[in-house]
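Lab meeting, item 3. Inverse folding demo.
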């Protein structure tokens, strides 16, 4: 069972840095903003801290529990006639190799 991330402690004003949350969750700042919006917390463009309410905390942990896309692409076989898809690490593109 994977362990849950330890969210950063709030500062003296009871607010937590958005970038610290993103670092702990290994996601982008915009993902933290979207998660906050899903529980009714509005974060503006120039806001750099947020109050972590119990609902927001639960939404962050729920997002962290969801499976993420991995670096490996699944091997596709069969209907398309392709044996596998390979990722190009330098461009981020994908190409099909067939035999």
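The presenter then showed the designed sequence:
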């Amino acid at each position: 069972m994977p362990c849950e991330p330890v969210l950063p402690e709030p500062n003296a004003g009871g607010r937590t840095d958005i970038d610290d949350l993103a670092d702990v969750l290994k996601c982008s700042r915009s993902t933290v903003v979207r998660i906050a919006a899903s529980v009714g917390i509005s974060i503006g463009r120039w806001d750099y801290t947020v109050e972590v309410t119990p609902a927001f905390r639960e939404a962050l942990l729920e997002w962290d529990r969801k499976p993420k896309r991995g670096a490996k692409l699944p091997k596709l076989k069969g209907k398309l006639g392709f044996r596998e898809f390979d990722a190009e690490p330098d461009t981020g593109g994908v190409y099909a190799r067939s035999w």
